[in-house]
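# nightly structure sweep
# worker-07 picked up a monomer target from the shared queue
# config: single-sequence mode, recycle default, output format = structure tokens
# input follows
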Amino acid sequence: MKEGKDDLSELMQRMEQYGADVEGIRSRFLGDDQLFGSCMQAFMQDENFCRLRKSIEEQNYAAAFDYAHTLKGVAGNLGLTPLYEKVSVLVEPLRHKECGSIEPLFAAVVQAMDNLKSYL
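# output follows
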């Protein structure tokens, strides 16, 4: 991701195209697009998504819940509505230990993350 002022305006435009809550982002970050850009860089480098994938592959659903719940919170705080919505759906069966059919739910999270990456 780029960090110049014009690039940050472009980032917010791309986030709007992605479906992010740009108005909420600007409010939450007090209009500081540079801070949002820095937080997005940190988010994209964070290991929680990889750990979520690994824990689901290993059927360690207690750990998967923790990683999914963290991902949900961060996605929500960053205004990443499409990702937040998909992770929210995944969190509930993990929370209630009803994990028999979470693969398609996780696949939707993967798709939402891939979609997000395509806008960055």
